[in-house]
Design goal:
It is built from 2 helices and no strands. With 78 residues, the chain is an all-alpha fold. It is elongated and about 60 Å long. The relative contact order is 0.10.
């Protein structure tokens, strides 16, 4: 009986602990994909094939760097 009670507590704690990392991963990958797809879309509309795609990749990488910098600064405060 104690094993049945303990599992939900441990599971809930582990989900709460990993939620920050899951959110960070989604934010990084979603932001990067957004800029890359916008660049790809702009290239297809304007006809400037890899220019805006490459600008989207660079913008996505800058966004990733800014998000990671923010996370690291918050972690250093703790």
């Amino acid at each position: 009986m104690s094993q049945e009670k303990r599992f939900p507590d441990d599971f809930g704690r582990s989900v709460r602990a990993s939620s920050d990392y899951i959110g960070l991963g989604l934010q990084v990958s979603g932001g990067f994909a957004f800029f890359v797809f916008i660049g790809y879309w702009a290239d297809s509309k304007i006809g400037t094939s890899p220019l805006f795609l490459l600008l989207g990749v660079v913008a996505g990488m800058v966004g990733i760097a800014l998000v990671l910098k923010k996370v690291l600064m918050e972690a250093n405060k703790k």
